[in-house]
Amino acid sequence: MQYSAEYRSKLCTADEAVKVIKSGDWVDYGFFANQVVELDKALAKRKGELQNVNIRSAARVYGPPMAVLSDPQKESFIFNSGHFTLIDRRMHDYGLCYYVPILFRECPSYIKYAKGDVMMVAVAPMDEHGYFNFGLSNTFHKAISKIAKKIIVEVNHKMPRVPGGYGECIHISEVDMIVEADWNVSPIPEIPISEVDQKIARLILDELEDGSCIQLGIGGMPNALGKLIAQSDLKDLGAHTEMLCDAYLDMWEAGKLTGKRKNIDPEKMVFTFALGSQKLYDFVHNNPGVASYPVDYTNYPHIIAHNDKVMSINGALEVDLYGQVAAESAGTRQISGTGGQVDFVEGAYLSKGGKAFLCLPSTYTDKDGELHSRITPTLSPGTIVTTTRSTVMYIVTEYGLANMKSKSTWERAEALIELAHPKFREDLIKEATRMNIWTKTNKKPTTAQMVS
Predict the structure, then answer these.
(1) Mean pLDDT of successive 10-residue segments in the chain (452 residues)?
(2) What are the distances in angstroms from CA 116 to CA 37, 52, 65, 119?
(3) How far is CA 312 from its chain centroid?
(4) What are the catalytic residues?
């Protein structure tokens, strides 16, 4: 069947397309690397014509939206993000972005409660069967399309075409308008690997086994771990993750990532979005060895647990002596988001032989050069708990790792203090004593440990 005539009938300029947006509408911009660019510029021109248009997106990668920059008073446009990058965070600091608390795995089901008037999303060019591929981000675009009153696709020939399990494309018959674009799909900058990242990665490497199924978050430590795995003797590892990053390329190129021992989607790298280098984007294009799925498949704990030996590795910002993990805010300042951390901590725990690691440097240095502990008696005021103390499994710093499961409060305090920087251990013991989570039988760090 030929779709060229239908394509031409729906083709229009970005300025024409955004005329369907009305005051009070909720407009989806696409998520991660699938956020629209030309349509955003066109909508910005309507500043002053419209009032109270809510824009919904997540994890900006193409800079602040032009619509937001055009309207700092938020009279026409209000921007809402389900996950913060540095760009979203800076906008939030200036009062130009609001966070949407989510459990990532639940997002497709939020259509039962969310308003969706216009969906705008960047896609790969239409194929001969009339399908536009969502490319680098499957997530929950298909779910949003079910509630959107109008669907506009921004077609970009530079968007990779990524094979999927399902939910990876939309048919022209479902689309109202088509806008053509020619912008570069932005790779994300390479994140440097620190000495602490290397130490933490080496600790986790010792916990991995042949046939492990790996989930990695973003950052220097996952990159370090990918490189260490590539140099290791491990074999037949699998990939089932929310984010496909360059660390998986390192493992694949070294022949470590075969997926042959996976119980579901064997020999496939499964993910819901990809962010990384241009090399990664070239790798996923038309690659039958990868499969993008909606997030309620990749991140649903009981689906994750179908694979054995799931190893979930994610980052954190602060941990208190009860084992509560903050991974998204520093005080009241939103830094990132819940993302899929909770999903994979639960899924890895349910997996036969699975382990979930939450990793953080033991300290940070403030702008005045003062050293602070990231392991604290209680979380800093206003800080959001991402993973509850009942859910947490392993906590990892450069000083070691400890499993929190089945531990009482005094056992947790002891284990976490051993993971803290030696400079802060005595003060943490004093606070644990004051909080009644320290006993006479607790082990105190030796003098050698305190000065190490």
Answers:
(1) 91 98 98 97 98 97 96 97 96 97 96 95 97 98 97 98 98 98 92 94 97 92 92 97 96 97 98 96 98 98 98 97 97 95 98 98 96 98 97 98 97 97 97 94 62 46
(2) 19, 14, 19, 7
(3) 13
(4) 242
pLDDT in tens, 1-27: 589 999 999 999 999 999 999 999 999
pLDDT in tens, 210-264: 999 999 988 889 889 999 999 999 999 999 999 999 999 999 999 999 999 999 9
Q: What sections of 148-275 are H helices per DSSP?
A: 195-205, 220-230, 246-253
Q: Do the Cβ atoms of 17 and 42 come closer than 8 Å?
A: yes
Specify the CATH number of the domain 195-451. Answer: 3.40.1080.20
Confirm whether residue 172 is marked as ligand binding.
Answer: no
195-451 shares the fold of 25-181: yes
Tell me, what's the pLDDT at 1? 59
- Tokens describing residue 295: 């997030």
Instruction: Give residue 192's Cα distance to chain centre.
Output: 18
Query: Residue 269, annotated ligand binder?
Result: no
Name which of 178, 161, 116 is nearest 141 in CA terms. 116
Q: Is the dihedral of CA 168, 169, 174, 176 positive or negative?
A: positive
**Domain 25-181 listed as CATH 3.60.20.10:** no
203, two tokens: 């600790």
Q: Rg of the Cα trace of the chain?
A: 23
Residue 220 in marked binding region? yes
Is 289 labelled a binding residue? no
Structure tokens at 245: 């990053």
CA 422 vs. chain centroid, Å, equals 32
Ordered by start, the domain boundaries in the chain are: 25-181, 195-451
Residue 340 in marked binding region: yes
Q: Is 170 annotated as a binding residue?
A: no
Residue 217, marked binder: yes
